[in-house]
Design goal:
CATH topology of the largest domain: Structural Genomics Hypothetical 15.5 Kd Protein In mrcA-pckA Intergenic Region, Chain A
Structural class: alpha+beta
CATH class of the largest domain: Alpha Beta
Number of domains: 3
Strand order of the largest sheet: 10-15-14-13-11-12
Distance between the termini: 29 Å
Largest sheet: 6 strands, antiparallel
Number of strands: 15
CATH superfamily of the largest domain: RNA-binding S4 domain
Helix content: 10-25%
Radius of gyration: 20 Å
Mean pLDDT: 88
Low-confidence stretches: none
Order of helices and strands: HEHEEEHEEHEEEEHHEEEEE
Length: 256
């Protein structure tokens, strides 16, 4: 297995546990992991890339999430995203902001483990967002009433329309492509040669709608989100039709 750096003892132990969980899948079962940090996700994907009978999606509540859940399922099943919820924590205090560490400590004090908590996003309006698995959300929202010495209010919010956090507005890109193949769209969006893009796709660093895709010929459609590890993501916003020479006019949003 190739990884970017040698495995530590703790990483070896984690990977062994992950492999044991995969061995319990019998072709009909699914598996949702706890939240993985970027290194654990890298290790897990290296294993899953060799499992032809399995597919998976990666989701942490929003596209730029650092900590993500993996939903692993038989390759012939329909894909879906892991079930997440977001908790909005708000407070009123002239003393200043509650920090990330304060919030994490308060959530863990409710009896949760670190891998049961996703990203914590502190805003500038005396509010924060805590991302958790759906099964934990109601318990946390009821019991998270204090952070340190401050009283807080907690409520579960709908994330289907996106999280109320500051986001990159993206850069508009317009151009033509010979088709809506994945390699053609990535080439336009990131300014890379088609040959380079093909290698990247086959190398397992591209996801479409949070699902890994390793076929350069994968056909895209309006609304698809494409992420390229280490380079950002693209949103295929509009397919405008063909040129006289049969190329497709498209519009993209590029996010860093």
């Amino acid at each position: 297995m190739r990884t970017t750096s040698p495995l530590s003892d703790s990483e070896k132990q984690w990977l062994q546990n992950f492999q044991r969980k995969l061995e319990t899948l019998d072709g009909t079962c699914t598996l949702t992991t706890n939240f993985l940090d970027p290194r654990q996700l890298e290790l897990a994907e290296a294993i899953l890339s060799r499992e032809n009978s399995l597919s998976y999606t990666v989701f942490g509540g929003y596209p730029e999430a650092e900590r993500n859940l993996l939903y692993i399922f038989p390759a012939q099943h329909q894909e879906k995203l892991p079930e997440l919820e977001a908790i909005r924590v708000s407070w009123k205090s002239p003393a200043g902001q509650i920090g990330h560490r304060d919030l994490l400590g308060a959530v863990l004090a409710l009896g949760l483990k670190r891998d049961q908590v996703g990203d914590i996003i502190v805003t500038e309006e005396q509010q924060a967002i805590v991302i958790v698995a759906a099964v934990q959300a109601a318990y946390i929202s009821v019991n998270l009433t204090e952070v340190g010495q401050l009283k807080v209010e907690s409520e579960v919010i709908d994330i289907s329309g996106g999280l109320p956090v500051a986001e990159d507005d993206g850069r508009d890109i317009k151009g033509t492509v010979p088709s809506l193949r994945l390699d053609a769209v990535i080439s336009l969006g990131f300014g890379l040669s088609r040959s380079r893009v093909v290698l990247l796709i086959k190398g397992g660093v591209v996801r479409v709608n949070w699902r890994p895709v390793n076929s350069p010929a994968h056909q895209l459609k309006e609304g698809d989100q494409i992420s390229l590890r280490g380079r950002g993501r693209l949103l295929l916003t509009i397919v405008e039709g063909e040129t006289r020479k049969g190329r497709m006019h498209i519009r993209l949003k590029k996010y860093s």
